[in-house]
Amino acid sequence: MLEMKKGIHLYINVKNFASIVRKDQNKNNDVTHALHALNVFFKCIESYAKSMEVTIEKVTGARLHLFIEGNTYNLNEEMVKKLFQISKYAVHCRDIIMDSSKYKSIPRFIVQMGACYGKFYYYKFVCGKYEEFTSIGYPANVGAKLQSKAEDGKLLVPYDIFNIGYEKYVFNSIKGTESFAKYALSRYYIININSLEIELPNSIDNKIREEIINVSLGEIIFSNFKTSFSFDSLSVKNCKEGNAVILMADIRNSTKMYEKNNTNLNEMNLKTQEFMEIMYSTIIEFYGIHVQFQGDREVAVFSPNNVKKAILAALMIQEKIKNIHLNVGIGIEYGMIYASRIGVRDEKDNVILGESVDKCDEIEDSKAKCGDTVISKNVIDLLKKQNEKDILKIFSKENYPKTNQTYNSFLESKRVSKSIQNYYDKSYNGAWNE
Asked: Tens of pLDDT along 97-156?
């Protein structure tokens, strides 16, 4: 079911979490300190936000996504105040957690935030017994982009949010200079969170410290997966680690599609279900594991033994998405991941963590254009190791190899290649061996 809403989308991200994971692994031979700290951080923020009737969208890796709706349909001071309260709480929570002796072996969290207000679409995806909520639209896209540019302890917001809050709450900010022409965003402001004139409840410190000791480090177990695993069996205490092929597939220019058709929710509901079901079902069909939707982006993992199936899944997604007159960009990486379920809502947020996950995100976001499937050198090396010559042939020879083939065009090129080879095999008379 697709609902049209208006609200502020807020992203809170631990920018350096992938490097924290690596250092935790090198120093402690596991990543329990890093995961424990992240889980406490997000659980505390989620609990605080829920007490203010703010909707928790989901945890996506080392990033928490929330949205704030108001009593009126337009942006108002109450919504902006909640945004500032949660932002200030997040930085304060980080400071309490990082000052704990429990986490002295890991680097301090670098917390960056971004927020944007506007109209968006909240969707409940259902496929068989599987259900998942996700939101799509301008404020989610811009909020995430602003967050990615923020420095530690800073919140980036567009002018409309800043304009409502600056006289009463904001006492230290500067106008941003970077261009966001893609999002028609000409003015945004960088707010120093510690300078916000916002009072936090006196009781919060004790609640954060209680959460820190709620689960001991010894209770968190990482077991290795060799082929596959199910998120249904995972929790903050029962996690998985191992090498995996990561796939991220993002529908291109979908925001324009929603803006163009915003008066016909029934049609958009069907379209949303259609492209999400294509991506989800294709991943399952090719023996992948669906992690989550991030807006209109599919995130999935495959066993290293199924790297060819991951590529074929990508080509099939390209094929089917084109057939419904949309475009998708896909990035694929290979490397170590850590999988778990965290958060205050019965630990139902599937997360995969690690540098390879961040790299896959970068490949999909900045390297894959409409219709492209882009893979990393690590994936190329894995394909070579498994002697997957037919797959290797379709990718370009560059730093980030790519192809714009679809599943059927790949099968056709493979058929033609085999036909030519058969012709030469039949024509060859063995003269070279004489």
From this structure: 999 999 999 999 999 999 999 999 999 999 999 999 999 999 999 999 999 999 999 999
Cα distances (angstroms) measured from residue 77 to each of 110, 162, 164, 169, 251 = 28, 10, 6, 10, 34
Closest CA to 33 of 44, 46, 48, 22: 22
pTM over 0.85: yes
From 61, 66, 30, 127, select the one nearest 301 (Cα to Cα).
61
* Total residues found in the chain within this entry: 434
Residue 371 CB partners (closer than 8 Å, separation 6+): 318, 322, 327, 328, 329, 404
Beta bridge partners of 238: 221
How far is 307 from 267, CA to CA, in rounded Å?
A: 36
Residue 231 DSSP class: G
Q: What would the DSSP string read from start to end of 23-60? A: HHHHHHSS-HHHHHHHHHHHHHHHHHHHTTT-EEEEEE
Please report, for residues 237, 269, 304, the alpha-carbon distance to residue 209 in angstroms, rounded to integers and kept in the order given: 19, 43, 40
Any idea what the Cα angle at residue 117 is, between residues 112 and 120, rounded to 5°? 110
Closest CA to 356 of 244, 432, 262, 258: 244
pLDDT by residue (tens digit) across 154-171? 999 998 998 888 777 876
Q: What is the pLDDT of residue 177?
A: 67
Residue 235: both structure tokens together: 């929790």
Give the residue-averaged pLDDT of 327-356: 91
Q: What DSSP assignment string belongs to 60-118?
A: ETTEEEEEE--SSSS--HHHHHHHHHHHHHHHHHHHHHHTSGGGTTSPPP-EEEEEEEE
Separation between Cα atoms, residue 430 and residue 269, nearest integer Å: 62
What letter does residue 5 receive in the DSSP assignment? E
Which value, in Å, is the radius of gyration of the alpha carbons in the chain? 23
- What would the two tokens of residue 176 be? 């941003």
Secondary element (H or E) of residue 256: helix 254-260
- Return the structure tokens found at 379: 């994936």
Q: How far apart are CA 149 and CA 145, in angstroms?
A: 7
